[in-house]
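Pilot study result, target chain (212 residues):
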Amino acid sequence: MIDPREAAGFVLAGGRSSRMGQNKALLPFGGQSLLAHALATLNAAGLTAQISGGEPELARFAPLIPDHEPGLGPLSGIVAALRCNTAQWAVFLPVDLPLLPSSLLRILLRHSSDTHAPVTLVSLNGFVESFPVVLRQDTLSPLQSALDSAQRGCLRGFRHAAEALGHPLTVLAAEDLAGQVGGTHPPSQWLLNVNRPEDFQQACQQTPGSIP
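Predicted structure:
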């Protein structure tokens, strides 16, 4: 098991929530906000959790790292978090993946530590997902270069960083991890992204005690 002092967790909360129509980080889910739920998921994986990006009011939930280049997407928030990070590994979880199990994060982190891969991701149905992601600290420089060159898509930036460090992307198939992850939800639901009201309602229906 990786030493918790060697890894840090970050919730990405700087999105505009335009499709939701309100700040989705504060939506009630399972008796708490989506943001509090995401922070608890990182904590359950053995990680100290911080928030990257988002409104100053979110700092009441956990330490908040400001995004110094807002409007450039989540890659900007990742770069800001890595710049403040001293741990060897950083785990990034968006605020809007409420059905993702903490055990999946532990598996990704352990695999990253064992292989020393700079970027570790998950695929579902053969499609590589941008999040969750485990990044080695030395991805900061190539990710900053990608951001500066307007290559602001996260997956493109991750691929650039891995290749710059002499390693391909490491991608684990969610379907192959189901037996190790366990939990109440199948892999098809782990990566349900809550962008719209109907997505949020679907996630709530899968979680006892949630408020649709």
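One observation from the pilot: The CA atoms of residues 30 and 209 lie 5 Å apart. A full batch analysis is planned for the follow-on phase.
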